[in-house]
Design goal:
The complex is a heterodimer of chains A (253) and B (329).
Chain A lengths: L3 E10 L2 E11 L4 E5 L6 H9 L6 E6 L2 E2 L5 H7 L1 E3 L12 H8 L8 H6 L2 H20 L15 H14 L4 E5 L7 H16 L3 E5 L3 H7 L2 E6 L2 E6 L1 H6 L1 H8 L4
Chain B lengths: L1 H22 L3 H26 L7 H17 L5 H20 L7 H21 L1 H4 L5 E2 L5 E2 L2 E2 L3 H23 L2 H11 L1 H6 L4 H27 L1 E2 L6 H14 L4 H17 L7 H15 L3 H14 L17
Antiparallel strand pairs in B: 1-4, 2-3
Helix pairs in contact in B: 1-7, 2-7, 2-10, 2-11, 2-12, 3-4, 3-5, 3-10, 4-10, 7-10, 8-10, 11-12, 11-14, 12-14
The chains are: A alpha/beta (253), B mainly alpha (329).
Chain lengths: 253, 329
């Protein structure tokens, strides 16, 4: 059984059919990439999987459960984590607090626990901080805990975004253009990080434009164009696919 | 020196606050001290909604009024014990908070501001026109003073101990809330609701919770006010009062807990000491707020944080919680 599956997933905005009947199966432990020209519907597809958009038709199935009508925050709790293309950090909160928010759905303390500061709450907070520190170390943000998120460099902010998503303890992590805007050095450490994420037992679904990154780490690739799946397969298969070459380079006269 | 400061600053402040009725016996000063406590609770309650959660409210006097009328009516018309009123006021206000929070979930910024303004006006009209219940514009007289055992808190000095205790309670609630899983969820919603949802936060639930907590604290302040003045009338809960609370929050610092307290104290006392300006008083008051917002947008809270950091030698820059979109504030 596939970890994440979509069946005939479609959505239109006005007359624009942004995603049309996309079928996808991502197996556990894969690094799966979605590529396609600008405006192909990749991020829209992510938004359908995470529940930010409601699909016009089609289904999203996660671990065998139909989650098409499940709210976004519930999908997070079920194990779908995501990072954003346009950074959506909590800018006026510390790095530690940003990552702690990611832990939200795994912690249990409620209002009463917080106000009475019960031993269970205090313990849970301490354990949570430990866990988050480990994640900040994992993405290479040691020593930045008390910095405001907005004061981090762009590359650091992208890492924090990933740390926050990892804190939700996902089974599948959706990364939306993690390499966009990164310099060569950051790019190398990102490539390494994505592989280390997989080693933690997390399946990775990736949108990316940097072809060398995609080709070097992906197990399989799906190509979208004008909202439709035009190809799927291993990096080599995709590279040689006629439809893909046409979509990217145009038709030979 | 620094460790001494860090260790004893809270204790020293508490001692000073509780010693006020010993330091002065002037009933006018003590009455102002009570009002400062009441407005500090109101400002903190607004800050939980606006500063922490980013939900704009320009109708906070409504919750204040609901609390005041709840406890007064229970005491005057039903003859219930005063303490029951003190418990009922926050509960009833919280229910109204939920009732206002639910339908306004999709609103933010100015739109939410206008709706809360409307809510404030509606509640004022209810206080004025439901004469059989509220006695209308004439107000309710004979609101009793609370008693502890045989001690009746009927002087401004003795009542002050109740006021300061409830203020300390509110401060503790605000701090514990802020530095908890719930507080982080509220701030995440303020910062970016979409990202908060994607990170696993049920924003509907937490926004309504923020309304509920905020309204209930404002309701408690209402009860505190009613039993201090021993009289309630709709004039205390007009929209201008909501604007005062808003000003206290902005001058104190949006999202700042110490700032809320100092902002409330300042704006309670300043108009009193400006009486010598006569009719110019409100102009000076307004001008002070305008200057404050322009030259110190982080409010008094920003100064306090800086002085505190200097005195305690904190190397880490403590987060100054910047509130809602600065333009909107």
């Amino acid at each position: 059984m596939a970890l994440l599956e979509t069946k005939g997933l479609s959505i239109s905005f006005g007359g624009v059919r942004a995603v049309q009947g996309v079928d996808l199966e991502v197996e556990k432990g894969e690094i799966f990439a979605i590529i396609g020209p600008n405006g192909a519907g990749k991020t829209t597809f992510f938004n359908l999987v995470t529940g930010y958009y409601k699909a016009d038709s089609g289904r999203v199935i996660f671990k065998g459960d139909d989650i098409t009508h499940v709210k976004p925050y519930h999908r997070t709790k079920k194990g779908i984590g995501r990072s954003f293309q346009v950074l959506m950090l909590f800018r006026d909160m510390t790095v530690l607090d940003n990552a702690m928010v990611g832990l939200h759905c795994r912690l249990k303390s409620n209002l009463a626990g917080a106000l009475l500061r019960t031993p269970a709450t205090v313990r849970e907070e301490a354990e949570g901080r430990e866990k988050v520190r480990e994640l900040l170390h994992f993405v290479g943000l040691d020593g930045k805990e008390h910095e405001m998120a907005k004061n981090l460099s762009y590359g650091q902010q992208k890492r924090l975004d990933i740390a926050r998503a990892l804190a939700t303890d996902p089974e599948i992590l959706l990364l939306d253009e993690p390499a966009a805007g990164l310099n060569t050095q950051d790019l190398a450490s990102l490539t390494d990080m994505i592989q280390r994420i997989r080693e933690r037992g997390i399946t990775v679904l990736l949108i990316e434009h940097k072809m060398d990154l995609v080709m070097s780490i992906s197990d399989r690739i799906m190509v979208l164009n004008f909202g439709k799946k035009i190809a799927e397969g291993t990096p080599d298969e995709v590279r040689q696919n006629e439809a893909v070459i046409e979509a990217y380079l145009g038709k030979e006269e | 020196m620094r460790t001494l400061y860090k260790k004893y600053r809270t204790v020293a402040l508490l001692l000073l606050a509780y010693a006020l009725p010993v330091l002065t016996r002037d009933p006018y000063v003590l009455h102002l001290a009570n009002m400062a406590c009441i407005f500090a609770i109101l400002t903190l309650s607004l800050n939980i909604l606006t500063g922490f959660t980013g939900q704009f409210s320009v109708g906070h006097a409504a919750f204040y009024g609901i609390g005041a009328y709840t406890s007064s009516l229970l005491a005057v018309k039903a003859g219930a014990p005063v303490w029951l009123g003190f418990l009922a006021a926050p509960v009833v206000a919280a229910i109204f908070g939920i009732l206002l929070g639910l339908p306004t979930l999709r609103l933010r910024g100015f739109y939410l501001g206008v709706v809360t303004l409307g809510f404030g006006e509606i509640m004022y009209q209810v206080f004025v026109n439901w004469i059989s219940l509220t006695n209308g514009p004439k107000g309710l007289t004979g609101v009793p003073a609370p008693r502890i055992g045989s001690i009746v808190l009927d002087t401004y000095g003795s009542y002050y101990f109740l006021s300061i205790t409830l203020l300390v309670l509110t401060i503790v609630i605000a701090y514990r809330l802020l530095y908890s899983r719930v507080g982080r969820a509220l701030m995440a919603i303020r910062e970016n609701e979409t990202a908060a949802e994607a990170t696993g936060i049920n924003s509907t639930y937490y926004k309504v919770m923020a309304f509920c907590i905020s309204a209930s604290l404002a309701g408690m302040a209402g009860a505190l006010y009613a039993h201090e003045i021993m009289f309630v009338s709709p004039e205390s809960f007009v929209n201008a009062e909501s604007v005062s609370i808003l000003s206290m929050m902005v001058v104190g610092g949006i999202g700042s807990i110490p700032g809320s307290v100092v902002g409330a104290i300042t704006l309670t006392l300043v108009p009193e000491y400006l009486r010598s300006f006569g009719d110019l008083r409100l102009v000076v008051y307004g001008l002070a707020i305008v200057l404050m917002v322009i030259y110190s947008p982080q409010g008094i809270g920003g100064w306090i944080t800086r002085v505190d950091q200097y005195l305690s030698g904190t190397a880490i820059r403590k987060p100054v919680r910047g509130g809602v979109e600065r333009g909107a504030a």
